[in-house]
Structures are given as structure tokens and as C-alpha cells.
Amino acid sequence: MKPIWIVDDDESIRWVLEKALARENLATQSFSSARDAMQALQTGTPQVLVSDIRMPGASGLELLQTIKAKHPGIPVIIITAFSDLDSAVSAFQGGAFEYLAKPFDLDKAVELIRRALEESLRETDVEQSAAQTPEILGQAPAMQDVFRAIGRLSQSNVTVLITGESGSGKELVARALHKHSPRASQPFVALNTAAIPKDLLESELFGHERGAFTGAQAMRRGRFEQAEGGTLFLDEIGDMPLDLQTRLLRVLSDGHFYRVGGHQSLKANVRVIAATHQNLEHRVREGLFREDLYHRLNVIRLRLPSLRERSEDIPILARHFLNQSARQLGVEAKRLSPQAMQFLSQLEFAGNVRQLENLCNWITVMAPGQTVEVKDLPQDLVEERVHAPMPAQTVSAPASAAQVAHALPAVGDGAEVSHASWISLLEVEAAQMLSQEQPEVMDILGRQFEAALIKIALKHTHGRKNDAAVRLGIGRNTITRKIQELGIGGAEDD
Questions:
Q1: In the chain, what percentage of residues exceed pLDDT 90?
Q2: Is 162 helix (H, G, I), strand (E, B) or coil?
């Protein structure tokens, strides 16, 4: 751990703080002026900075401004006299952690420094974990296949076609392919061909000469020139107009192109990685995509799975996005309760990883409290889950039978259970049992279903078997036998 810096022109203040912190086994380094501390910042940094405001030469506020510009994560505690409270406000506006008003209580000063120290160490841990986070997260088998493919392509310059649904992370894969390629030190340039108007796309790709069209007041380099020596990522390639497909095919064939309005052939040394969420084979059959360009792009195909195909990755992705969002906003990261995490793991996420990231941003801003429950999630998301049965194959961590029963409102208390909600919960339970290859699933769930019905009927009839049998539409002998077989208590002999 780095030392705590004490900056004050008053030697007695420095001495008192040094001794108090030494008793706490905390290392310190003292400076008699802000200018000396600024000089020391060129070769080192503190874990926490404690500084007076009024000192000869540079002020504590100037020191605060300097350290926040270079090291924004270091907590700064400002020491101020009561007459300097306006300066304390300025200190907070400049990013100070807290201030100490003179004369201060020594124990409270040490306690404040300890809080700042904990904040600094927590910030350091977050930065280290962020640095250690891989560019693509995923533990599911489908993602491991993607990682293996990136590894095999790491020393190759071959053209790659990435396919996958919108929001599944195709650009992240393209960036990883570039980062681990021999071109990693050269530019990575991305262009979403669907986001550029058709009449501007040609200029975006190949550049233009001055006067090539109205508004072209200067020569402009296109994306192929900007990516020289590196990688050009063409997203949503399936939406590219046919006439531009022809020009792109020529670049891929012989490596030459012309700027719009230009007459000089330019050589492109660029690796092209393309991506699409569309079925290019289908578009070729419809005449919307050139077959020869398709074969040029489809040298190596890398399919990225949708999030519902790797729902076991949702917890690790959610935690990553919550931490990322918290860092961006400068707040403490929210945590999902086990129930909320399980709920998210059972969603389909039509928008894939991008939708999950947006949801985590919403949670960081809107959810009350640090621990997020299901009820704290967006209402439309909760309602969509309750009223729409979920296909069994999308479930990664289904609820247990006890959790399913607990999730249903108590009958007889005025609560209403929709047909869709209990059916979907039944599907969740069945999916779990089938995925675990449990035997006799039909028999087990059937017995649970019968037991639940009989228990509820007996509750309504205050334990009278005859009345319960009538309510259920079964015979008295049948209900007696079922009660014995299922081990149901609370029934009375009529």
C-alpha cells in the first residue's frame, strides 16, 4: 500500500497527523508546501492525500486540481479553517473526498482518513479487476468454440465472416481477431454499412477527391485508407447496395480502388472482417447479394451464438455490466439477489448481450437499494416473463419445485394466478428435471399436481374428504386412496 501524503505548512499539524497514523500502522509522507507535493507527483502517488487549503505559494485547491487531473481515483481530504468554508465548497466541486475543519478532533481525523483509505483501496481493486477482464466474456461451450476459433485465426490474415443476431457482440469478436493478429499494432476501423445513407456510403468506404460532388470541398480519405495496414470491420454487410458490392468485390480481388471522383488507382493493404445478422445465402438466392462477393467474404465463417443459447453466461455478464456501469457513473455497483439473477437467466433477451448491458445500465440508475430484487426490475420485463410461457430450451437455471410453489400467490387470500404464469412455472420445473435426466418425470410431476389439488380442496372444505371429492369431481374412494398414496395429512373422516 502507498503512503498517505500530508501537505501543510504548519509543522505541528504534520507532526500530530504523522504520529496518530503511525499508531494505526499507516505509512505517511509529509510536505510543507503544495509545490513540493506537485513535484513529488512526477515520481510517485499517494494512497490518500490530506492537504491544507491556505499555504504560501500554491494553494491546496491548486494541488487538488492537479492531482485530480492526473489521478482522479485518489481521495483528497482538505483541511480548512471555519472562515474557509466557501473554499471547502469549492473543494467538493473540485472532487475532494471530504474536509476537516480546524480545529479538528484527532480521532475523527484518523477515522476520516481510514474511510478515504478504504475507498482508495476499493478503487484500486476495481481498476485491477477491470484490467484483468477479458475482452469477451463467456464460459458456455458455444463461446468456448468461438474462443478456439479466434485462437486458430490469431496468426492469419484471412477474411472472416461473422454471423449472429443483432446485439450478440460481433464487433467485439472482430476487435479480438484484430488484437490477436499480426496487424494488432495497426488501425482497427469499423463501419456499419446499414447506418450510412446509400449516397454517402461509397465516399465513406473509398474516400473522395475535392469537387467530386456538391459539398466535397476537400479531399477525404475513406475507411480503406484509414485502416491501411490494419483491419477494416464492415458490420451489417448484408445491407450493402449492389453497386457498392461490385466495388468491394474488386478491392477484395486485386486490392485496388479509386476515390470517388479520382483517377489514380490506390492499393489497399487491409484485412477485411465482415459481419451480418442476415442469411446471406438467402439474400443471394433473392438476387440481393452478389454470389461472388459472398464467396470472397465467406472464406472463414465464425458463428456467434445468441444469448439464449448460452444463458449460463448471463450471471457473469450481468455482474460485469453492473460493475462497468457503476465505474462510469462513479457509484457503488448494484448486486442482483439470487432470485433476480435466476429470473434474468430465464429470459430470452431478444436483443442479446446489448439488451442485457442496457438493462444493467437501467438497474444502476433506477433500481432502489444496493441489492436488486425481481420487483425492482423494469415492470414490462417482469410482466413479459409472467404472462408469456418460456420455451424449455432457453432455461439455464430453472427454479426448484419449492421455489415454483413459493412463486405462486397464496390461493384464498384474494390473489389471482394467471393460467400462463403457473403453466410457465410448470414448464420451468419440467425443463430442469429433463435436463438433469431424471427418470419418471411425468409420474413425479403428476403426483405433485394431484397432491397440490387435494391439499387445496381439503383446505377449502376444512379437511372434509367427501366435500373435497365432490369439489374435485372424483369419488370418495379415489380421494381416500390418493391421500394415503401421497401421504397427505389434515383430512377428516366424514
A1: 38
A2: strand
Per DSSP, helices labelled H in 24-79 are 34-40, 60-70
- Residue 30's SS3 state is strand
What pTM was computed for the model? 0.53
Binning pLDDT at 50, 70 and 90, where does residue 393 land? very low
Question: Which residue type is seen at 298?
Answer: N
Q: Is beta strand 271-276 parallel, antiparallel or unpaired with respect to 266-267?
A: unpaired
Instruction: Let me know how many helices (H) and strands (E) the chain has, helices first.
Output: 21, 14
Is 458 within 8 Å of 490 (Cβ atoms)? Answer: yes
Q: Mutual orientation of helices 441-460 and 419-435 as an angle, nearest 10°?
A: 140
Tens of pLDDT, residue by residue over 262-318, are 888 899 899 999 999 999 999 999 999 999 999 999 999 999 999 999 999 999 999
In terms of DSSP bridges, do strands 160-163 and 300-303 run parallel, antiparallel, or are they unpaired?
parallel
The residue with cell 499539524 is: 13
Give ∠ CA 211-230-205 in degrees, rounded to 5. 30
Cβ–Cβ under 8 Å, residues 346 and 179: no
User: When comparing pLDDT for 82 and 302, which is higher?
Assistant: 302
CA distance 49 to 77: 6
Residue with cell 500500500: 1
Q: What is the distance between the alpha carbons of residues 198 and 193, in angstroms, rounded to a whole number? A: 9
41, 70 Cβ separation under 8 angstroms:
yes
Largest separation between any pair of C-alpha atoms in the chain: 101
